Amino acid sequence: MTGFVCPKCRAALLDTGRSLVCENRHTYDIARQGYVNLFMKQSSSDARHGDSREMVAARSDFLDLGLYSPLRDAVTEQVVSAAKQNMFVLDVGCGECYYTAHIASALEKYDPTVCGIDISKFALIAGARRNKSINLAVASAYDIPVADGRADVIINLFAPHKEEEFLRILAGGGTLIRVFPLARHLWELKSAVYDVPYENEIGTTDIDGFKKVDETKLTYEIRLKSNAEIKNLFSMTPYSYKTSADDEKKLDSIDTLDTRVEFAVITYKKA
Predict the structure, then answer these.
(1) How many angstroms separate the CA atoms of 219 and 222, rounded?
(2) Average confidence (pLDDT) over 61-71
């Protein structure tokens, strides 16, 4: 069993070695890079946010510096606190699996099924290199190819999501862990780019059908030691989609930068 279901008929998908196949003989080939494509439709929104090979490389290079390791460790701690034997963990919007791979390694003794979905095949190719035990699929967060009540833990870091899908696929008493940036996350980086930097809007963190059981705020300062590090960080943020070429060019002359990072890590239980 892979943890995934067929996006056409919702029957369980079995791994035959080269393909995933359901009882109705719908077949999905496993790419040699270690992922399967279960994405049945492509909206303009999905297309716009599917990270390119260059964006994935920038994110990988930045994350490998270890500057976000406190966040990685905080999320892993929450997952491990909910651990049980043969648990099913799903990372929705897993990207290149910096967090997912660390979590999978921390859970090894529980013999878990760890899955990740993302709409970027380039991200999943990079993710497969981090940890080959993770089951990876190109899929939409708005139509997750996982059976009702199947997941014990869902992780959602910075990624688009649909709360009704979390409620559908999470088992009763299961755990949802969400991460999002706080108001002044990367404030100094934004100040270097924008004449009038803006704070991130923080909406309600309540979710119907879930009870909030833990909320941790991480705030600390990171030092970027080269222009490449600065641009890699900028490239992995939503600002890279929204910033004019003239504003982005302001980063060309900056070789070092100290900036704050601010994260909220919120853990919920399904009611």
Answers:
(1) 10
(2) 97
Tens digit of pLDDT for each residue in 203-234?
A: 889 999 999 999 999 999 999 999 999 999 99
Distance CA 20, CA 204 (A): 39
Phi and psi of 172, rounded to 5°?
Answer: -55, 130
Q: 47 in helix, strand or coil?
A: helix
259 sits in which H/E element: strand 257-270
Averaged pLDDT, 147-173: 96
Residue 141: both structure tokens together: 């967060």
210 CB contacts (<8 Å, ≥6 apart)? 166, 167, 176, 268, 269, 270, 271
Q: What is the mean pLDDT of the chain?
A: 94
Long-range pairs for 165-172: beta carbons < 8 A, 24 or more residues apart: 165/92, 165/141, 166/92, 166/207, 166/210, 167/207, 167/208, 167/209, 167/210, 167/270, 168/144, 169/90, 169/144, 170/270, 171/270, 172/270
